[in-house]
Amino acid sequence: MHKIAFIVLTVLVFLSASASRAAPHGTGELHDLSLQSATLFFPNAQKIAPVLNDIPARPVFDSDALIGYLFITDEITPIPAYSGKPISLLVGMSVDGEIRGVKILHHEEPVLVIGVEDRQLQEFIGQYAGINAEQRVRIGAFDRAGYQGVDGITGATITSMVINHSVMRSAKEVLDAVRKHPEEVSAAVQDSLERGAGAAPQEEINGIDFLRENYATVTLLGAALIFLLGILFFQDWLVKKKQRYEYVRTGYLIFTVLYIGLYLGAQLSAVNLFAFAQRLGQTLFWESLLYDVAIFMLWAFVACTILLWGRGVYCGWLCPFGALQELIYKAARKLRLPQFTFPSVVHERLWAIKYFLLIILVGVSLGSMARVAPLLEVEPFKTTFGLLFQREFIYVAYALGLLLIAAFNSRFYCKYLCVLGAALSIFSRFHVFDWLRRRKECGHPCQACAKACPLDAIKPTGEIIDSECHYCLRCQVLYWDEYTCPPLVEKRKRREQRALKQQSGNLIGTTEVR
């Protein structure tokens, strides 16, 4: 199944990248802007001149007086958004650089298709009216000196940042071009058919700025990732003491849910993979990858660890939804709620569901990311950590239902429905390290680890199924447990018997001396 899925997925990703290269990012509406478009921002507009030479902006006139400019952001600064494609925004700007308004023309953002109400979107873009192009505008920077803060869209952090930078950069470029070539502006006023000249170089915002602004996130999350690497490198020391392992494991899962999931909202998604596939063959806009530093750091960590240990490092330790499921399962065990597992034959068939879902989603995403948005709701991540269950009942019921099932069947969603896990598991086949210890008795006849594995990722013959393993290290705890692992149990019993005989011999010798 994994080989077939890998081949099909590779073909589909190639087609997705090809389709993305073939499809223009611009909306094509720039040359079709009507006077009605201008009156959205300039009620007294009577005429629109042709686009300027080097900057795609149209001068807007009230009779013979120049009153502003009309431009489309992705024609000036095509910044890839969450979907991997730019968001097309129509912006009206006065001659002195004051933004008169913003209108979304086109986008393929899944989070804006489902999950964000139109009211929220209009409230967000409405904040730009009255802001000057020379102001430094950042999401949430209300208390920061020298910045104008705006509220972001809840559950759409990256999209909010892309819209913000698209609007402000485009406006600044148009304003700089106008100031650099005042003679062209004068000519445009005298004759509305006269074209202007190009823009001054726009100062790029270094991606390092985002790291500095998110110093606390980079430090704490970076420390957590380093700590996880320590767990991997010193796993033998960790698992030799069951209680020590349980403390570390449970503590890390709680950290993942509370900090990575709830606080940072850094739940990775299959959308990220589709967006990356859309960018293949294009110039990567590295700054757009840094809009959400936590997401960037986690994906960079996944890219490294999946090649070394497989997908289990992320799925087992850093996935907030997976961690939440496991914590619920642990609590259910403490409460002695009944547990159920599927028979081996049924379990293996159910595995295939997530791979079929992945193939369907990639296939649908070939045409448009917006088209695949409704299907991506198979991931409950946005409902749980992005919108905190503040959305339509059907999505809330779906997410809560999965969490409820997790109380009775460990990581049910991860095992059978996770599209992201399916994609990552395909690449897990090529990992370098194999540090999970096994004994010759594993599977023949011992089944202790196979029964204890929460993912049922150990075959009856004893082999660990790498593509399904979450690297929770539970089998390694049993490997070193001399009260559970049958070979160690036998060794312990023989050792205790020898000690008992020696102790008996000492007692006999003492009695004879007396």
From TrEMBL:
Q: Name one GO molecular function term.
A: FMN binding
Q: Which residues cross the membrane?
A: 215-239, 251-277, 289-309, 355-373, 393-409, 416-436
Matching SUPFAM superfamilies: 4Fe-4S ferredoxins
- From which domain of life does this come? Bacteria
Which InterPro entries has this protein been placed in?
A: 4Fe4S_Fe-S-bd, FMN-bd, NosR_regulator
Q: Does the keyword Transmembrane helix apply?
A: yes
Q: Specify one Pfam family.
A: FMN_bind
Q: Which GO terms describe its cellular component?
A: plasma membrane
Q: Subcellular localization, per the record?
A: Cell membrane
Residue ranges of domain 4Fe-4S ferredoxin-type in the record: 433-463
What are the entry keywords?
Cell membrane, Membrane, Signal, Transmembrane, Transmembrane helix
Q: Which residues form the signal peptide?
A: 1-22
Which SMART domains does this one have?
A: FMN_bind
Which protein, by its recorded name, is this? 4Fe-4S binding domain-containing protein
